[in-house]
Specification:
There is one protein chain. The protein is built from two helices and twelve strands, in the order E-E-E-E-E-H-E-E-E-E-E-E-H-E. It is of the alpha+beta class and about 170 residues long. The longest helix has 22 residues. It is elongated and about 70 Å long. This is Large ribosomal subunit protein uL6. It comes from Microbacterium panaciterrae.
Length: about 170
């Protein structure tokens, strides 16, 4: 079902979704057909071959993610853990102090907003699930959590497996 305030239009292989938060477009893979009928988006496949079945489910999920994105949006939280590790807002950008000899400045990609809560929490939000996840992964990549003390940038709620350190004789 398409929620109120959302319009889905199909133009050949292009599916565009417009909603209160913005507009997203998607190109559908070749054997899959998409149509809008009676307030529903119908995704159909020509046959039951393995590739068609997998693309059918993928296409349906991608269109659903776009609809959720333009109505509610997506958010992902990051936590900075470690002594002296912190994050602060600099305009629309964010500056990290992660134990390097220099501060790391991150500019948000198009369509993504970065918000800092306190000095160790960061929230990434936007309408595209893929873009939000990729931005979060790229920021986490700067300093991944290490297994001995757990220091680094981690997703909110991520459990870091800890290792025992050196043991004396």
């Amino acid at each position: 079902m398409i929620p109120a305030g959302v319009t889905v239009s199909v133009d050949g292989r292009e599916v565009s979704v417009k909603g209160p938060k913005g507009e997203l477009a998607l190109t559908v893979a070749s054997p899959i057909e998409v149509s809008v009928e009676e307030g529903q988006v119908l995704v159909t496949r020509p046959d039951d071959e393995r590739a068609s079945r997998s693309l059918h489910g993928l296409t349906r999920t991608l269109i659903n993610n776009d609809i959720i994105g333009v109505t509610e949006g997506y958010t992902k939280g990051l936590e900075v853990v470690g002594t002296g590790y912190r994050v602060q807002q600099k305009g629309s950008s964010v500056e990290f102090a992660l134990g390097f000899s220099h501060p790391v400045l991150i500019d948000p990609p198009a369509g993504i907003t970065l918000t800092v809560e306190g000095n160790n929490k960061l929230t990434i939000s936007g309408i595209s699930k893929q873009a939000v996840g990729e931005a979060a992964a790229n920021i986490r990549k700067i300093r991944k959590p290490e297994p001995y003390k757990g220091k680094g940038v981690r997703y909110a709620g991520e459990v870091v497996r800890r290792k025992a350190g050196k043991s004396g004789k």
